[in-house]
Amino acid sequence: MSQYYQAGDTVLWNPSSGVSRVFLGQVRLFEDELSLASGIGPMEADECQVEIDQFSTFAQALLTYCSASNHQVLHALTDGFVITVLALAERAGAEVRPSRIDARRRDVQTGSAPALSVETGDELRQRAHAMLHSMPH
Fold first, then answer.
1. Are 53 and 39 in contact (CB under 8 A)?
2. Domain locations in the chain?
3. pTM
């Protein structure tokens, strides 16, 4: 069984139901964290509508949020979700760049352990583009 993410009549993504539940759970979590609606409507009869302009704003805020941190655990928890959001935004035709205005450091990694490399927004977008081949529509 699968579910459909659509912009009007255009299918953007058709993941399995389990993947869709995980994705929607993360969407709702980040709507709360960012205090911003995602543009992804409720899943009804295995379909939900994506409002592209609102989703683009959400994707940009998400990328800015993650880019503003060097916290390794935060990146380990979020990078896959961010890549999926960026891939979906690309498929929808939305260009997403982190905002420089809102990019203040938060959730900073501290301690004596050396920080691991954190992917840049450009690297995340490259991985998102590559993932499009794995996202049926």
1. yes
2. 4-107+116-134
3. 0.80
